[in-house]
Amino acid sequence: MGATPPLSPLAPSDFPDLPVIEGVSFATAEAGVRYTGRPDVMLAKLVSATTIAGAFTRSATRSAAVLDCQEKIGQNSDAGAAILVNSGNANAFTGRNGTDAVKALTEATAKTLNIPEDRVFTSSTGVIGEALPHQRITDKLAELSKALAPGDISAAARAIMTTDTFPKGSSTTVTIDGQQVRIAGIAKGSGMIAPDMATMLVYIFTDAAVDQPVLQSMVTALNRKTFNCITVDSDTSTSDTLLVAATGASGIRITESSVGFMEGLRQVMLDLAHQVVRDGEGATKFVEIAVTGAASDAEARIHGMAIANSPLVKTAIAGEDANWGRIVMAIGKSGARADRDQLSIRFGDILVANEGWVNPDYSEDEAAAYMKNQELEIHVDLGLGGGTAVVWTCDLTHGYIDINADYRS
Amino acid sequence: MGATPPLSPLAPSDFPDLPVIEGVSFATAEAGVRYTGRPDVMLAKLVSATTIAGAFTRSATRSAAVLDCQEKIGQNSDAGAAILVNSGNANAFTGRNGTDAVKALTEATAKTLNIPEDRVFTSSTGVIGEALPHQRITDKLAELSKALAPGDISAAARAIMTTDTFPKGSSTTVTIDGQQVRIAGIAKGSGMIAPDMATMLVYIFTDAAVDQPVLQSMVTALNRKTFNCITVDSDTSTSDTLLVAATGASGIRITESSVGFMEGLRQVMLDLAHQVVRDGEGATKFVEIAVTGAASDAEARIHGMAIANSPLVKTAIAGEDANWGRIVMAIGKSGARADRDQLSIRFGDILVANEGWVNPDYSEDEAAAYMKNQELEIHVDLGLGGGTAVVWTCDLTHGYIDINADYRS
User: Fold this and answer.
1) What pLDDT, on the 0 to 100 scale, is given for residue A179?
2) Within this chain, do residues A324 and A274 fall inside the same structural domain, yes or no?
3) Where does this protein hold substrate (chains A, B) (predicted)?
């Protein structure tokens, strides 16, 4: 696997204290799927009537576990549920064998926890193209079941890590009609050290009571503005999975109009999404790209992602070079509408270019000083309409090449 | 500008001997647009009745020179024509000023050569966002006009270089009904050292007589299979320009059915396109990606470009890692149709994966040995239909980061 890369310079100082979410309990185990001497399986058990919503990779080559989750999501059930995740082996591109492995895991988990099989959701992350030794996991189910405890979410965050340089967690508490509901989530994702995939896995839990269709529509809408607006290197995993489970244990019912709950969920999702960018391979800069004045929100996002994914923009940022010409280039190639002579570009508060030409007051020294910051904001205004988007990315450095051009042996 | 990078390890051993194309003459001059001590302007003068076809960047932020060429292309004229190209300054993102500079250049060239202004085509390549000091070029027009000579195409190839590590030329001779027509072309393009743009400029000349609409339809079709099938880093210049001029001096008329001529033109275009990839920044491997079995040719190209542009695939190639999992990932994210369980992947003659899983006879040692070659072939079969495409790219190395993350100062 090569050496573990050093802790990202953009990592948060500590793993946060996450509140206990009533209705969910966690356990982890060392199943030895691939790694030894560390937990590599996490099980989350959810009380009966928990609703579960999700979002998944749109890859045409998605893994068997993703296909299985997609089939099961959207139902309403009074039965309990479970989420089982292993690290070390992604069970991706394993042909028919992959489907059988998912079946073996969900069947055994259902039996152990006495819940219906269609209420068991699994994810796998790690090497691809190798058969998942699923029996190593099912052999641990009795142990996992016994160990289930409400407070072990931080251990779960660690068990699902592959090449992450830090565990990722976030939470918030929302007050609704004087009563509190809690939201807590964990994530993994950073990029890949050969032969891992850059799988992003996210599990969020709340004690609110939310009907499944309401929860699903919130998750779908928020996913579009959070996880779907981050990019490390434009590459997409075959296994990306986001699951949000509402246990209802607080007794507080959330409806479509619960703006406060939706805002809390958005904060947790955005925080976890940002943490994934901060753990981007080789990242030394965290970059927010805000696009305004586009012909539509969709076109604003296309421009934002074209800038965020441009190797030339990302290397310029790594080199602390205020190279606005590369931003113009990325906008031009994006395919969305732009008018060269209406464009303006800011780095932070510095107006770099305006109406298609460099700002006459632009100071290269001032811009160069700004680019030395670890957190950067690039603002592009297209001058065409009311479309806006914000996307987040990191720079492209020698560290990325070191990690990804490593020999597999 | 930083130090000139060393000669690409993928460079051809020599600049080829290019034949004289009757009806076109060349001159170069040191105008000092930005560089000193080297020619930075080339002028090509074309005899009357020369037909000219072209293809241009589709960037929404394309430069004034490109817009001017696009406006002029497609006409038929009995007048002479000219192509004027400068290196050092791209005259891109220079607002209204850029349009004025193009007007000044075309007006002065037309006057000097006594041809209509709408028969003068210009290109500029180099730094962007800085006003083009066009008078330095027009001051040299009398000198250029006097120096025009039929044999100076190789000097022209050198005058248009910016960060290229070698000049690019190619030619062929086609026999039609026992008579010979000649095709010779030059190109520049490699990538960009800050603050240059990765402009690709290509000028091809033939002594065949070809009606403009016939020439244009050939160029459009061939461009799709040559220059539009190469990628260094997925980024697109605001100034990319391809012009093909047919002087008619051989007296041999080419029609739509002249398969031999079209094949000759294809060879020259493909050779120049490959030379641009071979001069990709930091490139150490030349990679051909052949896609078959896609739902359509268009979808095959989408898959091919997704593989060719994937930073994860490109770093794996740099690391000589036969990482077929990253190819599966790139296919999955491309947006074109794929069925995981129908996919097969070859590196050269080595069958790596078949019908969605690793080939049981696959030897990682054999694949690792293959990946040490400087020229690599990756073949993906989708197993869906008859769509095919071939695209070419290079690897992503520390050299790319060195060149592009350099400080601008």
Assistant:
1) 95
2) no
3) 162, 188, 199, 281, 404, 409
**Residue among A211, A221, A201 nearest A50 (CA):** A211
Q: What are the pLDDT digits (tens) for A178-208?
A: 999 999 999 998 764 323 345 789 999 999 9
Would you call the peptide bond into B5 cis, given omega within 30 degrees of 0 as the criterion?
no
More confident call, A61 vs B376? B376
Residue of A56, A228, A323, A401 to mutate for B, most B C-beta atoms under 10 A: A401
Please give, rounded to a whole number of angstroms, the shortest distance from the CA of A327 to a CA of chain B. 11
The answer to the question of whether B281 is labelled as a binding residue is yes
Which of the listed residues B243, B278, B313 is the one where a domain comes to its end?
Answer: B278
Within-domain flag for B328: yes
Q: For A72-111, how does the pLDDT look when each residue is reduced to its tens digit (9 = 90+)?
A: 998 778 899 999 999 999 998 888 889 999 999 999 999 9
DSSP codes, B323-387: -HHHHHHHHHHSSS---GGG-EEEETTEEEEETTEE-TT--HHHHHHHTTSSEEEEEEE-SSSSE
User: B239 CA to chain A: closest CA distance, Å?
Assistant: 10
Dihedral, CA of residue B329, residue B334, residue B338 and residue B344, to nearest 10: -50
Q: pLDDT tens digits, residue range B94-109?
A: 888 899 999 999 999 9
> Which residues of B are less than 8 Å from A127 in CB distance?
325
Q: Looking at the structure, do residues A246 and A366 belong to the same domain, yes or no? A: no
Identify the active-site residue in B109, B122, B165, B199: B199
Q: Do A229 and A376 belong together in one domain?
A: no
User: What is the per-residue pLDDT for A192?
Assistant: 46
- A168 shares its domain with A202: yes
Please tell me whether residues A252 and A319 are part of one structural domain.
no
Hey, of A93, A232, A309, A384, which one would you mutate to test binding to chain B, going by the most B CBs within 10 A of its CB? A93
Determine the distance in angstroms separating the CA of A249 from the nearest CA of chain B, rounded to an integer.
38
State whether B192 and B307 are in the same domain. Answer: no
Please indicate, yes or no, whether residues A180 and A262 belong to a single structural domain of this protein: yes
Please state, for a pLDDT cut of 90, what percent of chain B lies above it: 73
ipTM score for this prediction: 0.81
Supply the range of the domain harboring residue B109: 24-278
> Does position A398 have pLDDT exceeding 90, yes or no?
no
Q: Which two tokens stand for residue B39?
A: 């020619």
Is B92 found in the same domain as B169? yes
Q: How far apart are CA A86 and CA A63, in angstroms?
A: 14
CATH of residue B324: 3.10.20.340
Which chain A residues touch B299 with a CB distance below 8 Å? none
Does residue A4 sit within a domain? Answer: no
Q: Which residue, B358, B280, B276, B266, is CA-closest to A92?
A: B358
Peptide bond into A195 cis (omega under 30): yes
Residue A317 lies in a domain: yes
B326 to chain A: closest CA residue: A197
Q: How many domains does chain A divide into?
A: 2
